[in-house]
């Protein structure tokens, strides 16, 4: 394949990455120290949780589902890690239990959606409430202090300036993009999301795939909870409130269709970066919180408009 | 005949009504067996059963002597049954190559082997004569004929024991269809059994070894193709059902013209269509599935943009061109859509609200006159004999026939003079059908003009004073009561498809 063909084929990702670069250029010209190491590492190290959650969300959106429970599941998993540590479990084991909590929520979602044919919107809306309730019950609505050991995951490694969490998140982005575009599993996800009936006629049963993406989304929300606890050094039962909306926004900015069948993990990651750059860039320009929200919201709508226009 | 490749014995299948009744069929290795029949004869259900998409109610199917009852499409492929379905099942967001190989993407440990995929797909596409260029681009960039070829490439790839082709040439031009027939014969020569379903009777006789005719879920004829003519097939499809209903309807005494269609064309109807509807007439629109029946009614109602001609409505001495649905409703033209669920009822709303909706829609700012509506709804209910507990009952709880009556009532509320009815008796029982026919006679007697599109020729012959036949999106001829026979009408409906392709 020639370079030109390759570029054309990845037009979706190219466009969004170009927008990201333009945005970074704009802020580095408009502010004095946008490119300073402190700013950059601050932005980057806040990202892992949203990134992994967005990867899960994008996969769910591609099979024309939605997972509204990711923010709550993240909070629940973070709480489980904290409570388990206080209860005397060694940290690695506590982390595993936290991931397991996320996976369990995801499997519950997936089972109800795939095998009982309930709409994912409603099921995960229910899970949004339930997981948050569980987080408050488990922690007695208190932030649980975990300690410095867990923070190693989220602190920049000396010399590199990048945390383990960020490295893990980027590896997951690359892995998920590979799975989506290069594996039979990924191509079947696209087929189901585009036309479930046609996929059925080609012998593809959508149920295991729906279960798998929702379970994965739960697991990744659990991982997000771990990253969040690591970043704070404690587990906050309020962590991740509203995060599902940021994840959906990032996926959509990255060119994922809410109707299913169309989406890109790399694009969604670029979407995460765009939201993050916008937030911190605007803050450095001295924008107030209301202004930041106004502009971020407008960017989401404009991204969808441009996407619609380009699709013609 | 247990040494046949496919052996179907006493197959039964019912949905609301029986669709297949004790169908038995044996197809040998290397045989191309065509199945023809009118709309609703049961062809698609038979295909779906073989494809593993639907179960059967009774009977037994064996493949090379082994019991064959697939639980899903994947099961069917595993058993060596490959189906190219009538509705195009290409997935637009996947590449052309991926679409061809979708049933089993070549892969090592779950990762798609792209070289193997390209080789597999280009060979399969080449075999069916696809020359649409780069096979790595998404399938939604393809025109409909090329999508059909992709579908066929998928079905022909691999070594199926039984190949089922449902309307394989519907979207193809003559050279492509010729090539497909050649390929079909080659496959058969290598031992594959082929079921070939098509409306194109000329093609059927050219490509098949034997032909079976399905009528009303029953297999009424199986014979070798070279002993049959197109005329024989039409006669067998029509059967004697038409004689049964030859009883004349009410004589029409046409009044003044209420609607005039002047040489209209639309994107879906490329050839100009003209007709005049007079007060007191019931005009039938006949045609096979996809012949353009609904498209004509939609054009008359202003739902689609006309590319030529015009629709004139003569209303109380005024003449108005219908250019949008809103104007149609205002000028007393009504359309009853084909699909009651999606185009007709507002389920969750009451019977009364459903009947009054067209009135309310015409003047959104008007305050709803509760008492007046109730009285009007009660009057229509009694007039049409709609059976419901109360007018406040959810319309979704009513039977199909009563829903249909309520929808007709919707337009009577507005005193519409021109009623365009698309399949008004689909899915209703015989008694309700008769009641709807009575209603149509009465409405026509009161000076309404009714245009009735139906896939049941029998029904049109029962109620209409004239029948217009569409074939291949073209108006091919017109019959007047007394001068028609069921066979002539059916034969006209097949007109666009009976020319031999090669």
Task: Explain this structure.
The complex is a heterodimer of chains A (312) and B (502). The mean pLDDT of chain A is 90. Chain A has helices at residues 3-9, 11-30, 37-46, 48-62, 70-86, 91-114, 120-139, 148-151, 164-182, 184-194, 196-201, 206-232, 243-253, 265-284, 289-311, and strands spanning 144-145, 234-235. Chain A is mainly α and 312 residues long. Chain A has a single domain (3-311), classed as ABC transporter involved in vitamin B12 uptake, BtuC (Orthogonal Bundle). Chain A has 15 helices and two strands. In chain A, 75% of the residues lie in helices and 1% in strands. The two termini of chain A are 25 Å apart. In chain A, strands 1-2 form a two-stranded antiparallel ribbon. Chain A is globular and about 55 Å long. Chain B folds into two domains: 6-242, Rossmann fold (3-Layer(aba) Sandwich); 256-484, P-loop containing nucleotide triphosphate hydrolases (Rossmann fold, 3-Layer(aba) Sandwich), CATH 3.40.50. The longest helix of chain B is centred in the middle third of the chain and has 16 residues, at 174-189. Chain B has helices spanning 43-51, 73-78, 96-100, 114-127, 144-156, 174-189, 201-207, 230-238, 241-244, 293-300, 325-330, 340-343, 351-362, 370-384, 400-413, 430-445, 457-463, 486-493, and strands at residues 6-14, 18-27, 32-37, 58-63, 66-67, 81-84, 107-108, 111-112, 162-166, 193-197, 210-215, 218-224, 257-266, 273-278, 282-286, 306-315, 318-321, 333-336, 418-422, 449-453, 466-470, 475-480. The two termini of chain B are 33 Å apart. A six-stranded mixed sheet of chain B has the order 6-9-10-3-11-12, sandwiched between helices. A six-stranded mixed sheet of chain B has the order 18-19-20-15-21-22, sandwiched between helices. A four-stranded antiparallel sheet of chain B has the order 2-1-4-5, with no helix packed on it. Chain B is an alpha/beta fold and 502 residues long. In chain B, helix 4 (114-127) crosses helix 5 (144-156). In chain B, strand 19, helix 16 and strand 20 (449-453) form a beta-alpha-beta unit. Mean pLDDT of chain B is 85; it is low at 241-248. Chain B is elongated, with a radius of gyration of 25 Å. Classes of the chains: A mainly alpha (312), B alpha/beta (502). At the A-B interface, helix 10 and helix 11 of A face helix 2 and strand 8 of B.
């Amino acid at each position: 394949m020639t370079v030109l063909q390759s570029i054309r084929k990845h037009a979706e990702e190219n466009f969004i990455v170009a927008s990201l670069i333009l945005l970074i250029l704009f802020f580095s010209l408009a502010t004095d120290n946008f490119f300073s190491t402190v700013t950059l590492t601050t932005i980057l190290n806040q990202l892992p949780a949203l990134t992994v959650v967005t990867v899960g969300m994008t996969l769910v959106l591609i099979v024309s589902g939605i997972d509204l429970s990711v923010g709550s599941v993240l909070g629940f998993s973070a709480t489980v890690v904290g409570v388990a540590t206080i209860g005397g479990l060694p940290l690695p084991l506590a982390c595993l239990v936290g991931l397991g909590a996320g996976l369990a929520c995801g499997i519950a979602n997936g089972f109800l959606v795939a095998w009982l044919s309930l709409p994912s919107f409603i099921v995960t809306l229910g899970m949004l409430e339930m997981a948050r309730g569980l987080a408050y019950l488990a922690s007695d609505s208190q932030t649980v202090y975990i300690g410095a050991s867990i923070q190693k995951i989220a602190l920049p490694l000396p010399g590199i300036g990048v945390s383990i969490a960020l490295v893990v998140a980027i590896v997951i982005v690359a892995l998920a993009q590979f799975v989506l575009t290069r594996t039979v599993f990924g191509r079947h996800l696209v087929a189901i999301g585009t036309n479930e009936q046609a996929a059925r006629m080609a012998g593809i049963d959508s149920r295991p795939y729906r279960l798998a993406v929702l379970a994965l989304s739960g697991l990744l929300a659990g991982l997000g909870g771990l990253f969040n606890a690591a970043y704070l050094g404690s587990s906050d039962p309020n962590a991740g409130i509203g995060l599902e909306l940021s994840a959906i926004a990032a996926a959509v900015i990255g060119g994922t269709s809410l109707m299913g069948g169309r989406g890109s993990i790399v694009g969604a990651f670029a979407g995460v970066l765009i939201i993050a750059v916008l937030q911190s860039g605007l803050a450095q320009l001295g924008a107030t919180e209301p202004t930041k929200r106004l502009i971020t919201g407008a960017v989401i709508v404009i991204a969808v408009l441009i996407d619609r226009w380009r699709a013609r | 005949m247990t040494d046949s490749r496919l052996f179907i014995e006493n197959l039964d299948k019912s949905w609301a009504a029986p669709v297949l009744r004790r169908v038995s069929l044996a197809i040998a290795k290397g045989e191309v067996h065509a199945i023809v029949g009118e709309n609703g004869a049961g062809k698609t259900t038979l295909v779906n059963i073989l494809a593993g998409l639907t179960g059967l109610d009774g009977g037994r199917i064996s493949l090379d002597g082994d019991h064959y009852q697939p639980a899903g499409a994947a099961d069917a492929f595993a058993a060596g049954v490959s189906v190219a379905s009538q509705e195009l099942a290409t997935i637009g967001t996947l590449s052309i190559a991926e679409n061809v190989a979708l049933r089993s993407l070549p892969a090592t440990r779950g990762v798609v082997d792209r070289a193997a995929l390209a080789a597999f797909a280009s060979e399969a596409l080449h075999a069916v004569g696809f020359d649409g260029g780069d096979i790595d681009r998404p399938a939604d960039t393809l025109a409909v004929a090329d999508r059909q070829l992709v579908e066929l490439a998928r079905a022909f790839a691999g070594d199926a024991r039984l190949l089922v082709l449902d309307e394989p040439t519907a979207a193809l031009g003559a050279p492509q269809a010729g090539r497909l027939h050649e390929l079909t014969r080659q496959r058969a020569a290598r031992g594959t059994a082929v079921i070939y379903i098509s409306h194109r009777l000329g093609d059927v006789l050219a490509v098949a070894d034997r032909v079976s005719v399905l009528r009303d879920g029953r297999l009424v004829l199986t014979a070798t193709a070279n002993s049959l003519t197109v005329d024989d097939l039409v006669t067998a499809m029509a059967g004697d059902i038409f004689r049964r209903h030859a009883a004349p309807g009410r004589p029409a005494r046409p009044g003044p013209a209420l609607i005039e269609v002047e040489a209209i064309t639309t994107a879906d109807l490329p050839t100009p269509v003209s007709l005049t509807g007079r007060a007191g007439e019931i005009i039938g629109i006949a045609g096979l599935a996809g012949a353009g029946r609904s498209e004509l009614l939609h054009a008359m109602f202003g739902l689609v943009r006309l590319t030529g001609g015009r629709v004139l409505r003569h209303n109380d001495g005024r003449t108005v061109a219908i250019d949008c649905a809103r104007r149609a409703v205002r000028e007393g033209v009504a359309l009853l859509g084909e699909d009651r669920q999606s185009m007709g009822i507002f389920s969750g709303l009451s019977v009364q609200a459903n009947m009054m909706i067209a009135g309310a829609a015409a003047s959104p700012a008007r305050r709803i006159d509760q008492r007046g509506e109730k009285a009007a709804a009660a009057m229509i209910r009694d007039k049409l004999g709609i059976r419901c507990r109360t007018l406040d009952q959810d319309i979704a709880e009513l039977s199909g026939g009563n829903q249909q009556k309520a929808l007709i009532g919707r337009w009577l509320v507005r005193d519409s003079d021109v009623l365009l009815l698309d399949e008004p008796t689909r899915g209703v029982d015989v008694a309700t059908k008769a009641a709807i026919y009575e209603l149509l006679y009465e409405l026509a007697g009161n000076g309404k003009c009714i245009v009735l599109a139906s896939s049941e020729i029998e029904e049109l012959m029962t109620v209409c004073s004239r029948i217009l036949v569409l074939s291949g999106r073209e108006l091919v001829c017109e019959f007047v009561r007394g001068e028609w026979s069921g066979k002539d009408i059916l034969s006209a409906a097949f007109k666009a498809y009976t020319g031999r392709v090669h």
